[in-house]
C-alpha cells in the first residue's frame, strides 16, 4: 500500500486538497469492487489540529500532524491562494519535512502554484517544473535556478512532479494513478471525473498580457510601442534605434526585464491579438493573419502553433463563440 500525504497548507485552495483525496479514494473503491485490496492510504497532514481556508469559510481537520508522519511515499503539495508573498512564509515549516522525506525516498508532487512551495525546498533546482501560466513571471524571478516549462501540463523528473494551473492538476493526479496502479484504473478515474487524459499542454489556455512587473522604464516604453504597433513590421534594429540604445544592450535589458527576447515578445503580442480575433469574430484565418501583420501563411501557422500549442484552425474551432452549438 502506498502512503500519500496531502499537505493541508495554511491558505491552501480547498479544491487542490479535495481533488487528489477524492481521486485516490475512488481508485481504492474501484479496486475493492474488483475484489482487490485498496492501493492508497491517503492522509491529510497539517501543522495544527484545525486549518482554516478561504478566510474562514472552510475548516479542515487533518488526519495527522506533520510531526506524526515519520515516513510517507508521496507528498501532494496543493495550490496556495493568490497572495504568495503572504502565504508562502506561512508554510515554511513544511519545507524541512518535505526535504527529509524526499531524501528518504518519498516522491513529491506540486499542484498549480504549489510549485512555489516545492521550489522553495531546493528540490527543483536544475529540474523542469510547471505551474499556472499566470504565475510565470513571478516564478522565474523567485526561482531562476528551476527550468520552468510553462506550456506543460505535467512534469516528471527524479521523483518530483508538477502540474499546470487550476483544474489541470487533475491530469497530474490521473498520471500518478496510471503510474502506480495502471492504465485501466486511470481510465476509470478519468471517466468518473470527466478529465481529458490526453491534454499535455496548457498553451491554448494562456492569456498574454505582457510582462511589466519590472523597473526598467525604457523597456516598458518599448513594450508599449510593440503592443500599439504590432501590425507593423518591427525589427530589433528599428526598435533599438528608436529608443536610442545599442542593439546588444537593448536585447540584454529586454530579456532581463520580460524573460522574452524582443522577437519572442513581438510574436507573443501578435499571436495574442490573433487569438482574440479568432475567438470573437467570423474572420477567416487568412484575414486574421493579415490583420496582425503576417503575410506568410506557413510562418504564421508555425509561430501560432509554437505559442498556442494548436494550429489557428484548431484554436478557432475550440474557442470561437460561433463554433459552439
Describe this structure in words.
By secondary structure, the chain is α/β, with parallel strands linked by helices. It folds into 2 domains: 2-205, Rossmann fold (3-Layer(aba) Sandwich), CATH 3.40.50.880; 217-318, Homeodomain-like (Arc Repressor Mutant, subunit A, Orthogonal Bundle). Helices cover 45% and strands 13% of the residues. The chain is built from 14 helices and 11 strands. A 7-stranded mixed beta sheet has the order 5-2-1-6-7-11-10, with helices on both faces. Helix 1 (14-33) packs parallel to helix 6 (169-180). 38% of the residues are buried. The model has no long low-confidence stretch (mean pLDDT 89).
SSE class = alpha/beta
| Main beta sheet | 7 strands, mixed
Rg, nearest Å: 22 Å
**Gap between N and C termini:** 46 Å
Q: Give the ordered list of helices and strands.
A: EHEEEEEHHEHEHEEEHHHHHHHHH
Strand content: 5-15%
Number of helices: 14
CATH architectural label of the largest domain: 3-Layer(aba) Sandwich
CATH superfamily of the largest domain: Class I glutamine amidotransferase (GATase) domain
Task: Note poorly predicted spans.
Answer: none
**What is the fold-level CATH name, i.e. the topology of the largest domain?**
Rossmann fold
* Estimated helix fraction: 40-55%
Question: How many domain regions?
Answer: 2
Amino acid at each position: 500500500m502506498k502512503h500519500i500525504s496531502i499537505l493541508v497548507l495554511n491558505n491552501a485552495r480547498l479544491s487542490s486538497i479535495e481533488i487528489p483525496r477524492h481521486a485516490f479514494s475512488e481508485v481504492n473503491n474501484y479496486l475493492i469492487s474488483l475484489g482487490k485490496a485498496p492501493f492508497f492510504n491517503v492522509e491529510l497532514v497539517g501543522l495544527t489540529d484545525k486549518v482554516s481556508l478561504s478566510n474562514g469559510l472552510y475548516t479542515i481537520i487533518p488526519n495527522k500532524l506533520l510531526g506524526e508522519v515519520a515516513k510517507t511515499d508521496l507528498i501532494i503539495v496543493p495550490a496556495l491562494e493568490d497572495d504568495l508573498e503572504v502565504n508562502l512564509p506561512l508554510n515554511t515549516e513544511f519545507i524541512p519535512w518535505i526535504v527529509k522525506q524526499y531524501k528518504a525516498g518519498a516522491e513529491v508532487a506540486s499542484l498549480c502554484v504549489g510549485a512555489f512551495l516545492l521550489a522553495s525546498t531546493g528540490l527543483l533546482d536544475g529540474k523542469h517544473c510547471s505551474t499556472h501560466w499566470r504565475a510565470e513571471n513571478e516564478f522565474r524571478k523567485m526561482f531562476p535556478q528551476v527550468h520552468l516549462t510553462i506550456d506543460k501540463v505535467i512534469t516528471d523528473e527524479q521523483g518530483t512532479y508538477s502540474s499546470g494551473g487550476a483544474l489541470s492538476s487533475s491530469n497530474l493526479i490521473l498520471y500518478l494513478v496510471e503510474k502506480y496502479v495502471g492504465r485501466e484504473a486511470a481510465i476509470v478515474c478519468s471517466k468518473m471525473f470527466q478529465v481529458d487524459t490526453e491534454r499535455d499542454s496548457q498553451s491554448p489556455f494562456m492569456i498574454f498580457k505582457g510582462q511589466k512587473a519590472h523597473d526598467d522604464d525604457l523597456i516598458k516604453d518599448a513594450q508599449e510601442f510593440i503592443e500599439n504597433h504590432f501590425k507593423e513590421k518591427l525589427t530589433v534594429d528599428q526598435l533599438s534605434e528608436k529608443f536610442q540604445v545599442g542593439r546588444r544592450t537593448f536585447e540584454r535589458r529586454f530579456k532581463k526585464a520580460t524573460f522574452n527576447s524582443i522577437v519572442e515578445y513581438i510574436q507573443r503580442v501578435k499571436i495574442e491579438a490573433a487569438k482574440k480575433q479568432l475567438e470573437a469574430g467570423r474572420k477567416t484565418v487568412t484575414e486574421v493573419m493579415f490583420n496582425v501583420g503576417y503575410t506568410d501563411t506557413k510562418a504564421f501557422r508555425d509561430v501560432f502553433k509554437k505559442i498556442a500549442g494548436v494550429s489557428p484552425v484548431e484554436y478557432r474551432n475550440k474557442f470561437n463563440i460561433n463554433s459552439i452549438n
